[in-house]
Write a structure and sequence with these properties.
Elements: E1 2-7, H1 10-19, E2 27-32, E3 42-43, H2 51-61, E4 65-68, H3 71-75, H4 78-84, E5 88-90, H5 98-101, H6 103-113, E6 120-123, H7 126-136, E7 140-144, E8 153-156, H8 159-170, E9 181-185, E10 190-199, E11 203-211, E12 214-216, E13 220-223, E14 228-231, H9 238-258, E15 264-274, E16 277-284, H10 291-298, H11 303-312, E17 326-334, E18 345-346, E19 357-361, E20 364-367, E21 370-373, E22 377-385, H12 388-399, E23 407-408, H13 415-422
Parallel strand pairs: 1-2, 1-4, 2-3, 4-5
Antiparallel strand pairs: 6-9, 7-8, 7-9, 10-11, 10-15, 11-14, 12-13, 14-17, 15-16, 17-22, 17-23, 18-21, 19-22, 20-21
Bound molecules: adenosine monophosphate and glycine.
Residues 118, 141, 150, 153, 155, 184, 186-187, 191, 213, 270, 281-282 line the site of adenosine monophosphate.
């Protein structure tokens, strides 16, 4: 099978690395790619925002299957365009991608199907939103409706903070994503992400993971795309997995199909495990980044047939095997991230890798034969171990082999799981 992979992050490097191991693969292409992905795939100069150019490339190169990593091209309808051209594609339609692209859409679906999530209201003007916030009191959560690169959410611990967040959204801080605002009840508990494949009808549960969204140790500072992750998340016990499938995932996928938007691809539920059990925070219609990196390390099965089955309606015949070990990844980011940072800073050494350790590239490039950091999140240092604690120790040991002066990282990735394991 000839495969084209779309994307250029750590998530796509992990996907490329795993797809490249498939006996079913005959050739792997990637766009835009990065130097890590280039070790696994032929990088093609292709403007992935130009959907017709992607179709033309697939025809010219006789691509059998396209795997789309990030959400933006999915929300823009790349999967629809490819499917209309008769090309098999892993990823949801634009209509199904609303599950991530519109928080209001997802909340309405939850209300209709009785899916546990925080009580909410949608607003298109500031004054009624503020009146509702005052009525509900703090803590309370203010969300821009659309895609805001993970930055459109304010978990307000005080009323003033909440009112300011409403004003900020309507003042255009998140562009058109903030034209509508969702005000949501605050959920208290431990977070986990739960990943599944779906082919429109059948759901295949994958695994759980936990991300670390805040930039600083102890979960402090502003939100980022994710500073590290581990899998499995111990808070997702067998009982919580069963309840999540029955109370959240299955009704959602049924609701999507019944509403005329059958979901195909991978998605993950961002969950809060509260004292009442799992409640939905949000859905994402793709693999998480950096959660994908730890999932790919742990997956024993061949990934490619699983993705293809999700794309072609045959997931009911598939199963998936995992290694018993835990995996943990530490993100190395450019100093200043998630704010402004310097670009093209040199990375002068990378560590050796083994069967249980791997450095996935995100925002890197080669300039004048030198590996440089070009993005906010740059490297994902990943390791496996018998427990999250030992995976953590292994990852931080590998990380010492990276020489990059402008890089920084959190020192406490995995702390919740480590605290459980050492309790
Ligand atoms: P989201 O962009 O929806 O993933 O939200 C970003 C983060 O805000 C989540 O990972 C949670 O940590 C937090 N968050 C979102 N909604 C809620 C909620 N209703 N209650 C508490 N925390 C929330
Ligand atoms: N790491 C969170 C995300 O990919 O949405």
């Amino acid at each position: 099978m000839k495969v084209l992979l779309i994307g250029s992050g750590g998530r796509e490097h992990a996907l490329a690395w795993k797809i490249a191991q498939s006996p079913k693969l005959t050739a792997l292409y990637a766009a835009p790619g990065n130097p890590g992905i280039a070790e696994e795939a032929a990088i093609v100069a292709l403007d992935v925002d130009n959907q017709q150019a992607v179709v033309d490339f697939c025809r010219r190169t006789a691509i059998d299957f396209v795997v789309v990593g990030p959400e933006a091209p999915l929300v823009a309808g790349l999967a629809d365009t490819l499917r209309a051209a008769g090309i098999a594609v892993f990823g949801p339609s634009a209509a199904a991608a609303q599950l991530e692209g519109s928080k209001g859409f997802t909340k309405d679906l939850c209300a209709k199907y009785g899916i546990p999530t925080g009580a909410y209201k949608r607003f298109t003007e500031a004054e009624p939103a503020k009146a509702y916030v005052r009525e509900q009191g703090a803590p309370i959560v203010i969300k821009a409706d659309g895609l805001a690169a993970g930055k459109g959410v304010t978990v307000a611990m005080t009323l003033d903070e909440a009112l300011a967040a409403v004003d900020e959204c309507f003042a255009g801080a998140f562009g058109s994503a903030g034209a509508e605002v969702v005000v949501e009840a605050y959920l208290d508990g431990e977070e986990a992400s739960f990943f599944c494949l779906c082919d429109g009808k059948n759901v295949l549960p994958l695994a759980s993971a936990q991300d670390h969204k805040r930039v600083g140790d102890g979960d402090t500072g502003p939100n980022t795309g994710g500073m590290g992750a581990y899998s499995p998340a111990p808070v997702m016990t067998a009982e919580m997995v069963e309840r999540t499938m029955k109370e959240i995932i299955e009704p959602t996928m049924r609701g999507m199909a019944e509403s005329g938007y059958p979901f195909t691809g991978v998605f993950f539920a961002g969950l809060m495990i509260t004292k009442n059990g799992p409640e939905l925070i949000e859905y994402n219609v793709r693999f998480g980044d950096p959660e994908c990196q730890v999932l790919m390390m742990r997956m024993k099965s061949d990934l490619l047939p699983l993705l293809y089955a999700a794309a072609t309606g045959t997931l009911g015949e598939m199963s998936v095997d995992w290694r018993d070990e835990a995996a943990l990844t530490v993100v190395m980011a450019s100093r200043g991230y998630p704010g402004a940072y310097e670009k093209n800073t040199p990375i002068t050494a990378l560590p050796d890798e083994s069967a249980t350790t791997k450095v996935f590239h995100a925002g890197t490039a080669i300039r004048d034969d030198q590996l440089v950091a070009t993005g906010g999140r740059v490297l994902n240092v990943t390791a496996m171990g018998d427990s999250v604690s030992s995976a953590k120790d292994a990852a931080y040991t590998v990380l010492r082999g990276v020489s990059w002066e402008n890089g920084f990282y959190r020192r406490d990735i995995g702390w919740r799981a480590v605290a459980r394991e050492t309790a």
